[in-house]
Batch of 3 targets.
Target 1
Amino acid sequence: MHSRILLLEDDRLFGETLVDFLESEGYEVLHCMGAKEAIDATYTQKFDIYLLDVNIPDMNGFELLKQLRESGDETAAIYITSARDKEALVEGFGSGADDYMKKPIDLDELLLRIEAQLRRIYPTGRVMVGEFFFDMQRLVLYRGEELVALPKKLAELLGFFLRNRGKVVSTEEILREIYGDEHPGTGPLRVYINRLKQLFGKDAIVNIRGIGYCFEA
């Protein structure tokens, strides 16, 4: 799942390390150095999960999340902090956190915790694509509450692209996935890809000449 993460971390080097790691795993990350910048971002952008430091210069991270919760923001939040006492743990969950990690953190463990939160948020495998949501189990696309009708093969193609979001997949892989060993050639595939570009934008799918495609929406 390619999801959007807001990272609040005032240690630039550590923050850049987290950004590089998470982006290498296919996530889109906005790194904020201060609380005001982070709060402003939540007003203008949609995120799937917050990663929040606690000890930041312009506001306590606990207070920041408490304010967001009081405003009705229920976005999943994981604290990443050097605080180790029980009182900090109690305060963190009391402010509305969904999880809590103590520095120094293990990056693989962080990834597992993020994925666990996303599974809880999208129990049916619902994936966000811009203004759309795609149900990965039912292969159904929605724009808000509106159902977007897709032919079965096109829905299967979109599901395949979303499972491989940000990765280059060969044309042969795609055809085998959608049609099996007996496929009709690349003509129908090009039609389906053009249809997805109409939905998600012409830059949503990149044609890697001589190799295949990369879904980047």
Target 2
Amino acid sequence: MIQPQLHIAYFQQAIAWEDPAANYQMVEKAFGSLSSKMDILVVPETFNTGFSDNMAAMAEPPEGATLDFARRMAKQNDALFVGTWTVRQKDGGVVNRLHWVFPDGNYGYYDKGHTFRMSSEASQLVRGTQKALFEWRGWHIKPAICYDLRFPRWLRNGVPASELYKLPGNGVERPKEDVALDYDLLLVCANWPGSRHEAWSTLLKARAIENLCYVVGVNRAGVDGVGIPYTGNCAAIDFKGMELSYCEPEQAQVQTATLDFEALQTFRRHWPFYLDFD
């Protein structure tokens, strides 16, 4: 059963440098200020420590303190909690892992597919090799992390063959009345520096337009421990590339958006660009 509207809250967090306890407190206070119930809560990439050269050293076991915090937030708010932190695997390798944590404590994860080679991340962390999709309240959701946003093939939406039929005689594909693409919402958690904020905002819109989906991009604000400034520019984008909501640049701020499933489906029916995907 698809929930007709999905209510999402995202936090443009000024992350406390390498201080998980301070960041837990910050996130809990931010989402505690909301006056209405949400379905999803999203925080930036490495929200517990910041994007630090010590990410590998600060990595947690697969079920560590930050997962405990995420489980508590999900349960308290009866909402999906989404964010990334570094995890040390059984083989000793460290990954930048995006977690989606359900109110009942169960969770799934996606390991960052494109580690950032222009920083120490690529040398410290293991690159993920598996794409991911998951479902929440009937919506199909794709997770991505920061640098992934630059790679459209990695994030390409698709159409299961069962959702198409061919016209007799010419084999031309047409959609069924309500087509189900692989995903309806792309969630991107990031630490994307302010010096490249135009690329961030442009790519969020591009991924929404080309994949006929909603996109929510959640980036940090403030200055990190090595002096790099982040403007945030968090936003919720619709399938036409229009902003539904956004955070003011440079400010720590919580913002919300309501995503409408029927509006998405109506647009897909009227403009079935996916039939010509490469």
Target 3
Amino acid sequence: MGISALTPPKRPEDAMETLLEFPDNRLLIDLCGQYDRHLAQIEQQMGVNILRRGNRLVVMGEKAARDQAEAVLRGLYARLESGRTLELGDIEGAMRMSGGVFGDTVEQMEMFQPGQYEIRTRKKPVEPRTEAQKTYVANLFDNELAFGIGPAGTGKTYLAVAVGVTMLLSGVVEKIILSRPAVEAGERLGFLPGDMKEKVDPYMQPLYDALNDFLPQKQLAKLMEEKRIEIAPLAFMRGRTLSNAFVVLDEAQNATIMQMKMFLTRLGEGSRMVITGDRTQIDLPRGTASGLQDAEKILKNVRGVSFNYFNSKDVVRHPLVARIIEAYEAADGTAG
């Protein structure tokens, strides 16, 4: 099965429309989305017009745009044929990978072959939605130490936690350890009200949010009670050896040089470590060097270490976030 392009008879090669036929009308309904919102999203971002005629779609526009839109529609229909669902984020990801928004080649749609690069958790499958994310996920599986560096919203931490959950559920590692520097409190958490968990939870909330996306609440609570999933401030890592674990240090730009060295040397047998951060959001006191930037320079050529870089084109939150980041990057370039 699949969709096929039908060429109307006696139509010139430079015709401004492409006709696509979809064998399964149920899947076509899902492809179009409620009130055709999926088609509207493709139209708006790819510069084409799409009309629905029975079990066919007519794509109108310049040839390059039509070819890319066709690649997106083919990939999304194949996804539905494999039994998976479509959300607006999946549409955005398909356009990125087709070259329709940020990519270069239609061949990038190969990522959307059923099951390829898919991360399976207990609640939902997770897929990289840009080329940088795809490379990052591959490095998370292939390297013992991986860095993810770039702005907020690019999936650095989210994908790392998803891969960690997958490895935990499949028995590759025995536990997950997630950490962040508690910079705002200067690591002196005793001044905050409540017990230790209540003191650190506000800083760790993004990590809890990611875990809640991947694991049922009861299972997550049980794994945390058994210490198979730990969430703790960076200061609590001192003196530990982290063996047979998937370890993530988030917001690493706010670790000092000594803290970063301490954390990196906690890596034990059978473990994997991921360091994520955004060099543009350093909250350390003035004059204090970032451990992330220091590690980047020192470890760049060390075997077994990968560096993965993201930019505004990899933002998978609201499209406006990407435009905001681009505006700040342009302003910084002008100022500097």
